[in-house]
Design a protein that fits this description.
It is a single chain. This protein has one domain. Strands 1-2-3 form a 3-stranded antiparallel β-sheet, with no helix packed on it. By secondary structure, it is of the alpha+beta class. The N and C termini lie far apart (40 Å). The protein is globular.
Length: 137
C-alpha cells in the first residue's frame, strides 16, 4: 500500500504527528484497500512505520486479511510481491539458490492465522542466525 499512497504521504500537512497522519491517511487506506485488491492490483506490504510503535509492524498482516486478502496473499505481499515491485525478485522474496537467506519462523501456521507472525521465534539474515528462540533449553 505504500506505493499507492506515496504522493499523499509526502505532503507536509500529513506529518505533524503520527496520530494526525493515521487519521488523515488511515481512513483513505482502508477505503481504497478492498477496491484495489479486488481489481487485481499487485499490493505490497507496508507498515506505515511511525504510526504505531516499532515492533508492532506485523499487525499489518492481520489488517490486510481483515480488509479482504487471504492469509497467504498477505504473506506474499510482504515477500514475492514486495521483491517484484522493488525490482529485486532475483535477490529476495523466495527461498532459492542465489537469493539472500533471509527468513523467519513462528510457532503456528501463518497461512491459517497471520497473527502468529506477530511473535517471531527465529530470524536468519543473510544466512546467519540472528535470533533463535526455538532451540530446546
Amino acid at each position: 500500500m505504500t506505493t499507492i499512497f506515496c504522493r499523499k504521504v509526502r505532503r507536509p500537512e500529513c506529518f505533524p504527528n503520527p496520530s494526525k497522519k493515521e487519521k488523515k491517511i488511515g481512513r483513505l487506506q482502508r477505503e481504497n484497500f478492498r477496491p484495489a485488491y479486488r481489481s487485481g492490483a499487485k499490493l505490497d506490504y507496508g507498515t506505515d512505520s511511525g504510526v504505531y510503535p516499532h515492533g508492532d509492524n506485523a499487525k499489518q498482516f492481520g489488517k490486510m486479511v481483515e480488509w479482504g486478502m487471504k492469509p497467504l496473499e498477505a504473506i506474499q505481499a510482504a515477500t514475492v510481491n514486495a521483491a517484484d515491485l522493488l525490482g529485486w525478485a532475483d535477490k529476495i522474496g523466495a527461498l532459492e539458490t542465489g537469493h539472500y537467506a533471509d527468513l523467519i519462523a513462528v510457532s503456528g501456521d501463518p497461512a491459517s492465522d497471520v497473527h502468529v507472525l506477530e511473535s517471531v521465534k527465529f530470524v536468519m539474515k543473510g544466512g546467519t542466525v540472528a535470533r533463535n528462540d526455538l532451540t530446546a533449553r
